Amino acid sequence: MREARTGTRFAALLALAAAVCGCTVQPVDGDGKGRSPVHIELPGSGSPATTGPPERSSAPVTPAAPAAVLWAPGATGRDVRELQARLRQIAWLYDGPTGTYDELTEQAVAGFQRKRGLPVTGRTDTVTWDRLRGMTSEPGHWELYLMGGQPAAAPDPRCLTGRVLCVSKESRTLRWMIDGRTVSTMAVRFGSRGTPTREGVFSVYWKSRNHWSTLYDSAMPYAMFFSGGQAVHYSSDFAARGYAGASHGCVNVGDEAAVKELYAQVRDGDKVVVYR
Questions:
Q1: CA distance 136 to 265
Q2: Rounded distance between C-alpha atoms, residue 138 and residue 126, angstroms
Q3: Which pLDDT belongs to residue 19?
Q4: How many Å apart are CA 198 and CA 227, to the nearest integer?
């Protein structure tokens, strides 16, 4: 009688433990050896199959899209000038700006990309451009047009009749005009503050194809004198340094082919107007 009560009490305890802790009664092993009669699974313990590392996704990984290309060889315009001016600021480009994405610009961009661990393409993409802008400053107007190429100013009213060398100090350009029509336009530079180019209306009084200045010991090819020792002429220094330099009062032209053609057309007595 006492043994029956004891068994009943033990069965009740097992049921209570199973309800509270998730216990299960274990059967006898196949070899006849018994195991512990109670296997306790703590709340939240789970089985090894449910607590292992999560399975990796088998979905393919999409590679990041390449950066968009802004300018490439052959591109032209003001934006290319800014690119070239910024490359000049950090000594990756020495020529220009020209406004044309040429071979030298491509090589400069490729060198900049290689130095900074970017994909070396020679083309300016958004990543390259952002990196370059972060290392440079906004170029000014005459930094963009350091070597010329700027648009010419409107001609002075005094240039609208006859044969005229119409020279604007504001836009730093020369228009060769005949009866109000512009025949050719070229960039020019002037004298420094100490040796300024005179302003006013003059006329060409002497032409000298291979002139040499004894005063400054320098060449003045295709010289067209209009006021004392001041002349319109080709300057190799302007061609090399642009507006980084200045003349001694003359009107310098940096495009030799353009001034050679101009020299062939201009006559003694043609008018010269220098204005702001």
A1: 44
A2: 17
A3: 44
A4: 8
